[in-house]
Design a protein that fits this description.
376 residues, alpha/beta, Rossmann fold, five-stranded parallel beta sheet, two-stranded parallel sheet, 39% helix, globular, binds 2-acetamido-2-deoxy-beta-D-glucopyranose, signal
Length: 376
């Protein structure tokens, strides 16, 4: 009898923390996180790459302007742009916080403390190797550190931190691996370099294979819990809405997003999920979860009004219907920044504000919590 009375306050406590999602993933007992990916999760690798890293806008304010509030917990200095492609935190930061872990340090920061994991993600990177894209006449303009290269870094990292395979398996027993989002840039570069939707579709199987290779490799090191995120509804992003703006109203869906581009993102995501299901059968001992960034974003759109979000315009940018111009992007001279980024979903027309990422991460954290089989 007595235990029942004791349990009730406990349940209320658990339920109330569940509502905020703030530490929901603590019950998963993750002690490390490893991230492979692109600008959606880069916490400082690209800006440390030679030769162009320091000259990218992400190395300077207004990127990271929200960090003027101070220390962020991974050894990054306060008041520093950090290399994140946003005004502040990314989804991966909120996921780390929800797991009770420090924010993930970038691999390229030689001074970082990697005891709780490493972030290998590089802004601008692709799932396919630059050389492979080049054979399709697609040029990687920002970095050659594709998923393939990041997996090589991961091999080097585990070679230097594990004594042998068994040691790695033991060390990674409670680690969370995030393989993506990656692949979005393969399509971005293709489309902005003049490829047709048909050509984009024909790339999907190869991109999905490259991502699956990343999952297999992670599992071969000892990963037991892997999240594989899909693509965003790219037709909702100002960069695409500006490039493909049209007067044909049937080109838009009820959220004013470009249908054809969203359909393409869904096409990639469906193939990715099929590949994940196949891989699950091959690896019954690993928990492999699809990260539904597409629907997390849709949910953000649906709650936009209740969050008081500006739906169309980017916070940092200039011109046009969406406050976006490809030749004068956020970070360029005299491009204005809105005074109230928390009222915007889009930070710069490509990436979200930290508030937007937080709302998406809250949705995802709850979804991961259920699917990663974490228990109270
Ligand atoms: C960051 O810089 C701004 C402007 O220079 C200053 O007001 C603020 O106090 C700084 N914050 C920290 C944590 O150093
Ligand atoms: C961030 O810190 C680095 C290293 O101390 C420095 O070179 C850079 O100028 C800083 N960036 C900003 C935006 O303060
Ligand atoms: C990528 O590699 C190619 C071939 O080695 C090189 O020409 C190019 O400059 C590299 N790009 C970047 C962004 O480092
Ligand atoms: C990792 O270690 C193995 C065995 O010692 C070695 O064969 C391999 O070349 C190493 N790989 C890297 C990337 O350092
Ligand atoms: C849409 O229609 C207006 C008025 O007819 C025209 O000025 C504008 O160029 C059109 N925009 C596009 C993207 O076709
Ligand atoms: C974008 O910026 C360029 C250069 O400043 C300008 O020529 C062009 O008209 C702008 N485009 C739009 C749609 O505002």
């Amino acid at each position: 009898m007595a235990t029942k009375f004791l349990l009730l306050p406990l349940i209320i406590l658990v339920l109330s923390s569940l509502c905020t999602n703030a530490h929901l993933l603590k019950t998963c007992n993750f002690d490390q996180m490893y991230q492979l990916g692109d600008s959606i999760s880069d916490t400082g690798n690209l800006i440390r790459e030679f030769p162009i890293g320091t000259s990218t806008p992400f190395a300077r304010l207004p990127y990271g302007e929200a960090f003027s509030r101070g220390y962020i917990g991974d050894g990054t200095l306060p008041n520093n742009s950090t290399g994140r492609c946003s005004n502040g935190f990314l989804m991966i930061d909120y996921i780390a916080m929800a797991a009770g872990l420090p924010t993930l340090p970038p691999y390229k920061n030689v001074e970082a403390d990697f005891r709780h994991g490493v972030n290998f993600a590089v802004a601008g990177s692709t799932a396919l190797r630059s050389e492979v894209l080049a054979t399709k006449h697609i040029f990687s303009p920002v970095t050659n550190s594709s998923l393939y290269v990041q997996l090589d870094w991961m091999t080097k990292h585990f070679n230097s931190t594990c004594l042998n395979h068994r040691d790695c398996v033991e060390k990674l027993e409670n680690a969370l691996f995030m393989v993506g989002e990656i692949g979005g840039n393969d399509y971005n570069y293709a489309i902005f370099q003049g490829k047709t939707m048909e050509e984009l579709r024909s790339m999907v199987p190869e991109v999905v294979d490259a991502i699956m290779n990343g999952v297999r490799k992670s599992i071969s090191f000892g990963a037991t819990r892997v999240v594989v995120p899909g693509n965003f509804p790219i037709g909702c992003l100002p960069i695409y809405q500006t490039a493909f703006e049209t007067n044909i109203s049937s080109a838009y869906d009820e959220n004013k997003c470009l249908k054809q581009l969203n359909e393409f993102a869904m096409y990639h995501n469906e193939q990715l999920q099929q590949a994940i299901n196949k891989l699950k059968q091959e690896n019954p001992n690993a928990i492999i979860v699809y990260g539904d960034y597409y629907n997390a974003y849709q949910s953000l759109l649906q709650s936009a009004t209740s969050h008081g979000f500006e739906m169309e315009k980017a916070c940092c940018g200039i011109g046009g219907k969406y406050n976006f111009n490809l030749t004068r992007m956020c970070g360029a001279p005299d491009v204005p920044v809105c005074p109230d980024p928390h009222r915007y979903m889009s930070w710069d027309g490509v990436y979200l504000t930290e508030k937007g990422y937080r709302v998406m991460a809250d949705w995802l954290i709850y979804d991961f919590f259920t699917k990663l089989q974490c228990h109270f």
